[in-house]
Write a structure and sequence with these properties.
Number of strands: 7
CATH topology: Pnp Oxidase, Chain A
CATH class: Mainly Beta
Structural class: alpha+beta
Helix content: 25-40%
CATH architecture: Roll
Strand order of the largest sheet: 2-1-5-6-7-4-3
Number of domains: 1
Distance between the termini: 9 Å
């Protein structure tokens, strides 16, 4: 498996809950503890998050590579804090975003490899 944790974005490909059609979303990500974390700005209202909740097996894509993963909402406070700090370490050029997340963390989704 070839994975570049220093890349700035990743594409999450879920399947529509009703249509079954691919639903790709490109977003920031951070890696910590063998997992990939993504912040959902819309929280549980985000369509892609609702797709992950309905069908946790999704695909992550970066350039011409793809990986099958399983997604889950992060609900443990310590894990949320760890995800925020992983983003802080990676996206040092965006301290305002990280400070806002420290004060009021977004909903995080954790992805772990299935292979």
């Amino acid at each position: 498996m070839s994975w570049d944790p220093n890349a700035t974005t990743i594409r999450i490909v879920t399947r529509g809950r009703v249509t079954g059609v691919e639903h790709p979303v490109t977003t920031w990500f951070a890696c910590a503890g063998g997992a990939v974390y993504v912040a959902a700005r819309g929280g549980l209202r985000s369509d892609w998050v609702r797709n992950v909740l309905a069908t946790p097996a999704v695909e992550l894509r970066r350039r011409r590579r793809s990986w099958m993963v399983v997604g889950a909402i992060v609900d443990d406070g310590d894990e949320v804090a760890g995800a925020v700090e992983a983003f802080a370490d990676k996206y040092v050029q965006h301290p305002g975003v990280v400070d806002a997340w420290r004060a009021d963390p977004p909903t995080f989704v954790r992805f772990r490899w299935t292979e």
